[in-house]
Specification:
- There is one protein chain.
- Helices cover about 70% and strands about 0% of the residues.
- Helix 6 packs across helix 8 and helix 8 packs antiparallel against helix 9.
Length: about 400
């Protein structure tokens, strides 16, 4: 009897491993969105979410099912304030309803992925190796697209590599997140080359936020000794060489010979002369919408303007800043929506998860200054679920050690 039960649970474990790895290759790589956008697959990404939701139901019967209470609490709170502000303050409209729908789907996705990752350390190892493979694939795609701008069915940005992510900023952010979760899998001697390869992939996106995030993550991993402190000099020399090269006449001549689009050349000009106000207009547009969002917030600092308030204004873009995005919607409460989720998935982590959680928290909070889409991008949401599961597993392991001292 016990033998048959153990066999049953072993099968469920391997089934869960397959689900976890498949979820990474489906959502973290953004291949599901890419196939739909490129016309290669007729079903939208929601189809895959529903498929994984259905496939995860057998996991409700495993021994290790565990969705962290702080995550469930945040999800319920996020839905509650979204519905309340939708009813009381929002101006009815298709855009506002779509915003509410996205929030509900994001919460459902986080819970489904948290169930799939559960609190099993072995599953987390398999999942992180899948992430390792995914980021190496993304770096390869970036390099290939840099020299072949239409490699991804003319969906590419013509020089600013994006791969399956379509958006180069998302690509850069995904590479940094992948590095955070996978670098410590490697033997210390291989970590420096791996981080360097990821840095090249990030640089090819010309994403300022992702490049800064990569630098911050490297510093954190150096301080926490995930990367050897003696190697810090190599980072300084390497970073200095890259920026000097970008600003050199030789670099400018080489890059001009490549088929880069206007946006890529503007980004390169910005790196060559950061102080020049007319070198790249993206920063100016971001500053303009940020100022407008701040004005909307100061007019209604306590209750905000209702959900989707920066999606229905006259500007063609939203805030590019998740803090301002939710502050205009929910008032001062909105500033804490992302930080509270970050805290919920990283609080009281132990061991290796503690250092991963520190880097994850720092990058996500920093990335919030550059993007307002963090809580709807599935390649990021799936990392929240994995981080929550790893934190829960580290807590259980710590309790076991305390309860069974040697």
């Amino acid at each position: 009897m016990n033998s048959s039960l153990n066999k049953k649970y072993d099968l469920l474990f391997y089934y869960q491993c397959v689900l976890a790895v498949s979820a990474i290759f489906t959502f973290f790589t953004e291949i599901s969105s890419y196939l739909y956008t490129s016309g290669s697959f007729s079903q939208p990404p929601l189809f895959w979410v529903m498929l994984f939701a259905l496939a995860s139901t057998p996991l409700l019967f495993t021994k290790t099912k565990y969705i962290p209470v702080p995550v469930i609490t945040w999800c319920l709170g996020f839905i509650f304030i979204s519905l309340l502000w939708f009813v009381l303050l929002s101006i009815p409209g298709e855009i506002v309803v779509e915003e509410l729908r996205k929030r509900i789907l994001s919460v459902i996705f986080i819970i489904i992925m948290a169930l799939i990752f559960s609190s099993n350390n072995d599953i987390h190892i398999w999942t992180r190796w899948a992430i390792f493979i995914a980021v190496l694939m993304a770096v390869f795609n970036n390099g290939y697209e840099f020299f072949n701008p239409i490699a991804f069915n003319s969906l590419g940005t013509g020089g600013r590599s994006a791969g399956f992510y379509l958006n180069p900023n998302n690509d850069g952010a995904a590479l940094v997140l992948g590095m955070i979760f996978s670098v410590s899998l490697l033997h210390p001697i291989y970590r420096l080359p791996f981080v360097s390869i990821i840095g090249i992939g990030v640089l090819l996106t010309f994403s300022r936020g992702a490049i800064l995030g990569w630098l911050v993550t490297v510093i954190i991993f150096t301080i926490t000794r995930v990367l050897h402190p003696n190697k810090l000099l190599y980072w300084v020399l390497g970073i200095g060489t890259i920026f000097i090269s970008l600003g050199s006449q030789w670099s400018a001549e080489v890059l001009q010979n490549l088929s880069l689009n206007k946006n890529s050349l503007e980004r390169i000009s910005w790196f060559q002369n950061i102080s020049a106000s007319d070198s790249e207009d993206s920063a100016d547009s971001r500053l303009e919408v940020a100022q407008l969002a701040w004005q909307m917030f100061t007019k209604h600092p306590f209750l905000g303007n209702g959900i989707g308030s920066t999606l229905t204004w006259n500007m063609g873009i939203s805030t590019h800043n998740i803090y301002l995005y939710y502050m205009t919607d929910h008032g001062i409460l909105g500033a804490f929506i992302l930080p509270v989720l970050v805290y919920a998935v990283t609080q009281h982590a132990h061991g290796e998860s503690k250092y991963i959680g520190l880097a994850f928290a720092a990058f996500i909070l920093l990335w919030g200054l550059f993007s307002h889409n963090i809580l709807e991008e599935r390649y990021i949401l799936i990392m929240f679920s994995l981080m929550a599961a790893m934190t829960a597993a580290s807590q259980l392991e710590q309790r076991f050690k305390v309860g069974n001292p040697l």
